[in-house]
Structure formats: C-alpha cells, structure tokens
Amino acid sequence: MTSFIEKKWMGKVLVLAGIYNLIFGLFCVLFPNSFFEMINANLPTYPFLWQCIGMIVGVYGIGYIAASKSPLRHWPIVLVGLLGKIFGPIGFIQTAMLGDIPWSFGYLIITNDLIWIFPFVYILIASYRNRYQ
Fold this sequence. Notes:
By secondary structure, this protein is mainly alpha-helical. The protein has 5 helices and no strands. The chain has helices at about 5-30, 35-40, 45-65, 75-95, 105-130. Helix 1 packs antiparallel against helix 5 (about 105-130) and helix 4 runs antiparallel to helix 5. The longest helix is centred in the first third of the chain and has 27 residues, at about 5-30. The chain is elongated.
C-alpha cells in the first residue's frame, strides 16, 4: 500500500506540474512570439497555432491540479499527461531532424516534458500497486 507521505508527495508534484502548465500556456497565448525571439528562431507564420498549443497545455494544468487531490484514483489523467510527455520529445526530435525547428527549441522539452516523466511514472506504478496488490 502507498503511504500517506507518498500520496502527499504525488499531489504536490501534480500541483507543481499544473501550475507550470497554466503559466506556460498563458505565456504562449498572451505572447506567442516571445519564446521564438528568446531562442533566435523564425517567428511562427501562424502564431494562433502556438496559442492553441498553449491553450492545450493550460488545460492539462487544470487536469493535473484536479488529479492532485487523489493521484492514485485519478491515474488516467496522469497517464494522458505521461503520454504527452513521451510523444512530445519524440515529435521534437523528428521535427528538428527534418530541420523544421531549431534544436534550441529542445529547451522546452526539458521543462515541459522530461522533468515530469519519472514522477508521473512513479504515480502510475503506485496506483497500479495500490489497486492490484
């Protein structure tokens, strides 16, 4: 069984992920060219697409915060988030290899995806063990 301390830690991670996603999403919506300017990349031709990505990321943030109240029970939200955190880097590598975006875009992969993978995996494993053991 998962201890109360572990569950509390999981909830805090999900709240942090949620806050991060809300801030990042808001940043993308309000300032769609800013990140591109920071990494000296070409500005997007259609900034509304970047704003839509920001909106999606922000919605994930709401889901993470909702799941933080009972991480083991709300494992499907964590699973959907984890899938995004796995497919995001894969898509980035493919797109960068094709030359469609600069490799410097990878800075986002670190903060948006990579740092969250292991805590999300841990929550999913704990949820599975809590349910089936």
